[in-house]
């Protein structure tokens, strides 16, 4: 019978363990129970059990050997090998409790933690799980405890699972283990050991520098193993790696530590440095030692230990001529023990029902078991192909070529799509050179003497046979359907972060289902880019490729720096002798129009500009990919909505509606959110906005709407604003406008970032399944970062300080490797239920409230590449609502039908003719392009067709129509009919119900902002009649709100016309930005680190590293562009901004550090004071540390104090820390692992940042 759960606790279950977690208002305690780490814990239980069986067998054999021939030589059949385990960093005790309950002969488990609260939690959970007799809670420093056990009662197993690096504990751990004992080590600081930004920190932690190549994660394993080996060797011990795995965001290894001076001598021969080519990633290994074994005449052997001979290595790569970088030292011996991995597989098969992640365990261990033992590192076909600028060949093709040439291959567990081989780099490259013969590259675009050209043009030494080898197909294939590699789950990271979107409701069994999914995530037969591990934000990581980007690459021309290609040529191909002076009749004579170079340049310049978009002219775009996770095959046969394996390339354009191409981006405007999916069935466009409804119900009004909103034709004023008489005059007379008016007066129209906007299809579409059944659908996007806004004063100032604010923000974060993600949701209504609502599904001025039709979340879009050329991509992309694919259809929404005509029609004039679909950014994927049809000619046709231009014809009737079975765009019949008339459906004529619903759904703060916005917008109207009619409109929405608006407009509000119905809507994609269903996390933010001369360098580095690891950009602000200097000599940071080149408005949060007298002097500058006051008035998170705390308390309404025995206090989102200790600073390291502990200064500030705005403040008395 289950035990009752005590009050104020919730129960978290994992396998056999039941963990009591305190219910807290300030923290969900997920820092200490990470469900993603269940895989780690499952593997560890299995590994310890297998190790214990091996040790028991060894001890048994030793006993029998000693007792051989003696009395009582037989071993007691009931003898059991009892052993002890130290869980050195135990937190809640979950790992220790599982060991106690699931490992039969572990009779003593010590669960240690430094924090008293954690030790109390261990004790409480041990008692709750009935293992208090086995699990002994210990409070203290882990290293001190291990040092106490260096002699006498040593531990048999030590488990190190820290936040970050295990380096500080290794020395103690290798000493406190019994000989042959098991050391289990986790390190989560992948940014250090597998990244390229912190080589000095990697050296400090692991005694070596990290590798910069696709095999960096195996390099991380080898760095740690070498660190363990060196530590053990100091004490006459050596290591035996049993299994070493790179998993998700961390590495985990199981290593035996033995006594033995003889083996210790061999350790230096298992260590070496690795020379890695900076371009093609070829590597060469330099061992540190070598062992020469000699046998004398009597047959006795002796070993001689010598320094290794240097490999014949220049500073340039032998393959491509680029520079070598030296990395390491690191472990160069085997990282797995095959006997151990095979025993692990047997154990998993026999106990699959005992592990929640058994399928994934088997998959990963199987790959580790199959890895080539003596071939360090691996390569991917994508990385080599990228270096040679070719289309990547299928994985199986290259692997087959290597095997056919007599070499061995295997997978690597560390990276999906990777190949291990004992073939040298030159042979690997020969395989690609053979592939290049049938997939040629454009040599004219490759610089002479460049590494790419050297690689591509080198003479092959091996005549590669790329015929698919069946043994390789079987080896790399998926016959067993093993889960070899894991897709990033929604709560990715060292901490179980709260999921965004629909995943918030996922239970543990669904998470296990994700672990146990059986699909393999790399198709060995396709040229497809392997998944990139984004657990660490690293701008040096390659952008995930997709087929659309590869297609665009063929149209991209790089300008060579030298050679023939670097010479300026005219558009007709002639080389220009001078491009700076025109031809003249005499040195001072008239310019000659006969100068062909001048005319070529100036004529092209005169025609560079094309007509800008009438609406949505201002915007920015990005490439990405979409991955469906939930199939909709019951309602559609569209592959994009049924195929959960393929990653579909996407192109997204965000925009503002009214402003011209150069307008300020932070004006109050509706935002466009247009998405193109480059599917294998053609292009599909969702051309939406960040507001789910529109102004008008019928398309014929669109012309008048835009004319009223755009600048007045007489004065050309105002630009990119709706705050003028014409717009509000039209709104006051437009009967269907109230719902849209309610949205545009909310903060939805001043978004913080395009990374934080919702997207809506606005119109209703139809999905069609294989049987022809129709289902109405509305599409929605939810940003993973949540939707957040600017405040109005901030938006006004940014219009002048940085008119490109939103564009710069999107590019900055994508280029930094912090990729925005959006969840695609659908609201589905069966055709037979069309009339059951109080509104018409075809009315685009209405939403479908989530309370009536919940959103079903089906897929995730990631934007991971900015455009290469703004004109060629952002400007020339032609989104059209009519672009659909089989399985998707139009509804009878009148606005949709108008858009279908208008969008297509406007592209013809804007892009110079009917052939705009031939532009690279508009072309469908190669699967659907070059497309075959009978359409011909027109302006700027880029295709030379060769075939019939009519149908039917005598040439086998091609190009012919496609049947439904062949993927034809088929429209099943449905009932239409009625009299021809100019009218709308009956339900279209209710205009206020949903406007009131929207207003009711706003928080009190947002309602107050709504009123203030109304005062600004309508306060710019001089016509009293316009203001009067608008107050009358608002009075139908909510009388109390209309009264408040009227008071600021000098208008008397009429009496209430109806009672507010009181209904609200708060779903998974919420209306209110302050809804509990919105996403708040300290990620994707731009944080200002105020660090003029004299700043505290230790604090600055700790904060910068912590918030970079969480996925933010931390910008240093100082007195000058260049270095800023810390308190001590030699301490400096490069600045990104100065107090003059930026204002607090550019940032989400501002941190004022501690500092010396120079720092204090800078704080007293008026500009710096304004930064603090303005950030406070804009409701942003602020940190005031040390000397800044006293200074800040005199500027803004906070007190210079601490709370509750802590070193800080939190006051309305201002974290004040008068005396921040070095221990507080060190706790920032927890944030690098995603651990947000609200009890620490670091965690409290992270939570303040996560809240985005602290609206409870009253800045009304501040001047800013």
UniProtKB/TrEMBL annotation:
Cofactor(s), names only, from the UniProt record: heme
Domain Catalase core: 569-959
UniProt record similarity statement: Belongs to the class I-like SAM-binding methyltransferase superfamily. Trm1 family. Belongs to the catalase family.
GO cellular component: cytosol
MF-aspect GO terms: catalase activity; heme binding; metal ion binding; N-methyltransferase activity; tRNA (guanine) methyltransferase activity; tRNA binding
EC number annotated for this UniProt entry: 1.11.1.6
Protein name per Swiss-Prot or TrEMBL: catalase
InterPro entries, per the entry: Catalase, Catalase_clade2, Catalase_clade2_helical, Catalase_core, Catalase_haem_BS, Catalase_immune_responsive, Catalase_large_C, Catalase_sf
Pfam family, one: Catalase
Catalytic EC class: oxidoreductase
Annotated organism of origin: Wallemia mellicola (strain ATCC MYA-4683 / CBS 633.66)
SMART domains: Catalase (SM01060)
Keyword flag Oxidoreductase: yes
Region (Disordered): 487-524
GO biological process, one term: response to oxidative stress
Entry keyword Transferase: yes
Entry keyword set: Heme, Hydrogen peroxide, Iron, Metal-binding, Methyltransferase, Oxidoreductase, Peroxidase, RNA-binding, S-adenosyl-L-methionine, Transferase, tRNA processing, tRNA-binding
